[in-house]
Design goal:
479 residues, mainly alpha, 2 domains, 0% strand
Length: 479
């Protein structure tokens, strides 16, 4: 506890660096595979992962969060949770095998049977390393986690690219989905140096199972709400349309997933350790929240303004139809950056029931919006997705902070500052962009992207009265 501030700062630096590396690795892998494969290859695998992703939510059963959130946890409890996770993984793998013919029947695509059967292995591999990764996160050993994650991504991406080069087509994506969890679990065992003991009765994990079960139900509802769009697009618009929509969605999700994962792991671990100190809890949360927003806002604006050039540079000339979908999905980056961190707050305080109620409230609205947008194709679904997530921001803030040490005003003030700087920088970038039309996409992207980031940074630090905050942050990092 005495070195919590230092551990949090060091952990934050390591996780940001690691997620930056992860972002680049995922992006480079996607760029290469997008040129070696065709949209229908991605669409086939996307059809299956929309279903297996639901099963994947249960492999953890929220027990990793339970291990991290508890003030104290025993060796017997962790061992018991390990065996529970492994059993769940095996059950989920068998379930995927059983469901494979039904998934193929839904899409009228027999190739999905083999893909589903292969992806079932990934569910088992992943479950074997969950508690080992949780121990590393609980102990705030983020350097070990970073090394493990980067090494796993390099290995999985390299194997996938090699498979694509030898002509395996969509199986390259399947192989990557299997190798990644296998490497992650093996790395977790090596880094944690912990061996589970025999399962015993009376380990006292009932309350942890309840906590984990609620977390899992929350994740399930959120997953269905965020992925039913792909099921609809694949079923009614076809495999190629899903491939285009899925790649646009993936490019939007990469910054969301990487930033939220990097900040969330550190913030949740730190906030859980000080959950009894309300004032300190509030201060830590708002600082982390402000830093995450400061990084995310320019990314969201860049994706919206520079969508055509980003798609041309990242995916190549065969993916021009993904650009308008990508632009319409860009607002979700901002919406999730504002809403997702509220989960750090309520989970670290043990308010998992509130998170589930919030998910249950917004999920039906999202499903209805997808259906309304479906007649207009992938673009209509993308617009519906973004519209609902943006409209949900204020109600989500009010519900999440109710009865906590935070107020709606605290959160909105933190949000408005980077948002105002981002909008102003975006207007400037659009104005200058009129003089860059003759440049090649890559050159235009570099010029406008650099202008956006530079003007945003200056406006954020000097135009919103945040100079003292960022100078203090820099001093903390230097120490």
């Amino acid at each position: 506890m005495e070195d919590l501030r230092g551990k949090t700062i060091r952990g934050g630096l390591v996780r940001v660096a690691a997620q930056g590396a992860n972002f680049l690795l995922r992006l480079v892998t996607l760029m290469i595979l997008a040129r070696l494969l065709v949209p229908s290859d991605f669409g086939l695998v996307g059809m299956v992962t929309a279903f297996t992703g639901v099963l994947a939510l249960f492999r953890d059963f929220g027990l990793s969060a339970a291990t991290i959130q508890r003030a104290t946890v025993t060796e017997e409890q962790i061992s018991a949770l390990f065996w529970v996770n492994l059993l769940i993984g095996v059950i989920l793998g068998v379930t995927a095998l059983v469901l494979s013919p039904f998934i193929a029947a839904i899409y009228h695509e027999p190739r999905l049977i083999g893909i589903t059967a292969a992806l079932a292995l990934g569910l088992v591999f992943n479950s074997a390393g969950i508690q080992h990764g949780s121990l590393l996160q609980r102990e705030m050993r983020f350097t070990a986690l970073a090394v493990m994650n980067v090494a796993s991504l390099i290995t999985a991406g390299g194997v996938a690219i090699l498979a694509a080069l030898v002509g395996l087509g969509y199986w390259a994506l399947v192989v990557m989905a299997i190798v990644l969890p296998l490497c992650t679990s093996v790395g977790s065992w090596i880094m944690s140096r912990w061996t589970p003991g025999r399962p015993r009765r009376g380990a006292g994990i009932l309350s942890m199972l309840r906590f984990g079960g609620t977390v899992t139900m929350n994740s399930l509802v959120v997953y269905v709400a965020n992925n039913f769009d792909k099921v609809l697009v694949g079923r009614y618009c076809g495999v190629e349309a899903l491939g285009i929509y899925g790649r646009a969605y993936q490019l939007v999700s990469i910054p969301i997933d990487n930033l939220n994962s990097a900040a969330g792991e550190v913030a949740f671990s730190a906030l859980s350790r000080i959950q009894q100190d309300a004032e300190r809890h509030k201060r830590y949360f708002l600082k982390g929240y402000a830093l995450l927003l400061a990084i995310t806002v320019p990314i969201a604006i860049a994706c919206a303004l520079l969508a055509d050039d980003l798609i041309a540079v990242l995916l190549g000339p065969n993916w021009t139809e993904a650009a308008p979908v990508f632009r319409l999905l860009a607002p979700t980056i901002l919406a999730f950056a504002i809403v997702n961190p509220l989960g750090w707050l309520i989970y670290s305080m043990g308010l998992v029931g509130r998170g589930l109620k919030m998910a249950l409230a917004i999920a039906p609205v999202m499903l209805v919006a997808y259906v309304l947008g479906l007649p207009y194709g992938p673009r209509g679904v993308a617009f519906a997705y973004s519209a609902v997530t943006m409209l949900w921001i204020v109600p989500a803030i009010a519900w999440a902070v109710h009865g906590t040490m935070l107020s709606v005003k605290d959160v909105l003030v933190t949000v408005i500052r980077p948002l105002a700087a981002g909008v102003a920088a975006g207007v400037l970038t659009v104005g200058v962009g009129q003089y860059c039309s003759e440049l090649l996409p890559f050159a235009r992207l570099v010029v406008q992207g650099s202008l956006l980031c530079l003007s945003y940074a200056l406006l954020l630090v000097f135009g919103t009265g945040q100079k003292a905050f960022y100078l203090e942050t820099i001093r903390d990092l230097r120490r």
